Amino acid sequence: MPIDPVWIFLVLIFATVFSFGQAVWGMVSARQARRVVNKRLATAERTGSLGELVLELRKQRGLTEDGRSIFSWAWLADLVIRSGVTVDPRRWALAIAGAVLAGGFAGLFFLHNIFAALGGAVLFGVGGPLGYLTFQAGARTKAISLQLPNALEVMVRSLEAGHPIPTAINLVGRELPDPVGSEFGMAADEIAYGATLEQAVARIADRCRHPDVDLFAAAIRLQEKAGGNLVGLLKMLARTVRERHKMRLKIRAASSEGRMSAYILTAAPIVCFIFINVAQPAYYAGVLHARFIQIGLGCLVALLVTGNLIMRRMIDMRI
Q1: In the predicted model, what is the mean pLDDT of residues 51-75?
Q2: Per-residue pLDDT reduced to its tens digit, 192-205
Q3: pLDDT at 33
Q4: Interval 11-40 mean pLDDT
Q5: 3-state SS of the chain?
Q6: 88-125 as b/e, with b when 16 or more CB fall inside 10 Å?
Q7: Lowest-confidence pick of 28-32, 211-215, 267-271, 281-285
Q8: Is residue 71 a contact partner of residue 81, using CB atoms and an 8 Å limit?
Q9: Bridge partner list, 69
């Protein structure tokens, strides 16, 4: 049976493209493997002395030289610290300005009202950044829950090998990714810069704002004051943290139906309203400026927010 030369040519082209793709993927993977483990190590490569490193790490977290937050509002300072987002005022100003313009344009485009444009600008300019910080804080909290047992086990192995506690903390900072890697690395730098172990661990808990990290800080403080077997204490703490995380996952699975109901009931009217205005811009044009319709829409928005708050209280189970 004769073989079509065209098929041979196509197979050769496929083999060439596949081999090129594999080579590119291998190069990218090798480059990622050579990258530093966390942001703290990347910052250490750019700074000269240990003092500059400590100050730069605090600056990235929105802290002053003595460890206080640069934000005057306590709730905002707490949210920024828990999110772990790098504080860059210039970049933040550009992002907020873009969100304000996008919100104003969206309100003017969909509702054809200057007050709606102002409301959209305020909503996007304020709610957008706060929503992003809240999302990042939640993701960081989940990452800490997953990584902290591994960090404790690394410390246990280091202590069993005969290393002191600061060396064990520094090992976690070198070997683990963010967020735990950078937090423990910052603590190791602060200890080397002159802080006591108790102060450095307390600052880890203050930056993470996580109950499991609070347990770790309390265990270190207890061992510093009363002494005892720190290795056994950390082993028990790692086991406790893992069990707490399993319980959180069980609670999340039990409340998944309520959360999905909240998402669907919240998104359905918003998606329908946007779709109708895009498909038929004149659909609400004749009645949208009526006072009665505006009051009705306001009441619907208030009921939607109230329903979300109630459902959040119903599914918000903590341990």
Answers
A1: 88
A2: 988 999 999 999 99
A3: 45
A4: 72
A5: CCCCHHHHHHHHHHHHHHHHHHHHHHHHHHHHHHCCCCHHHHHHHHCCCHHHHHHHHHHHCCECCCCCECCCCHHHHHHHHHHCCCCCHHHHHHHHHHHHHHHHHHHHHHHCCHHHHHHHHHHHHHHHHHHHHHHHHHHHHHHHHHHHHHHHHHHHHHHHCCCCHHHHHHHHHHHCCCCHHHHHHHHHHHHHHCCCHHHHHHHHHHHHCCHHHHHHHHHHHHHHHHCCCHHHHHHHHHHHHHHHHHHHHHHHHHCHHHHHHHHHHHHHHHHHHHHHHHHCCCCCCCCCCCHHHHHHHHHHHHHHHHHHHHHHHHHCCCC
A6: eeeeeeeeeeebbeebbebbbebbeeeebbeebbebbb
A7: 28-32
A8: no
A9: 63
pLDDT at 176: 92
Closest C-alpha among 153, 177, 167 to residue 42: 177
Q: How far apart are CA 21 and CA 268, in angstroms?
A: 42
Tokens of 220: 């270190």
Under 8 Å between Cβ of 317 and 251: yes
Cα-based distances in Å from 17 to 114, 195, 211: 54, 56, 51
Q: How far apart are CA 50 and CA 54, in angstroms?
A: 6
pTM for the predicted model, two decimal places: 0.76
Q: Phi and psi for 73 in degrees, rounded to 5? A: -85, 125
Q: Give the residue among 319, 148, 175, 171 at the shortest CA–CA distance from 234.
A: 148
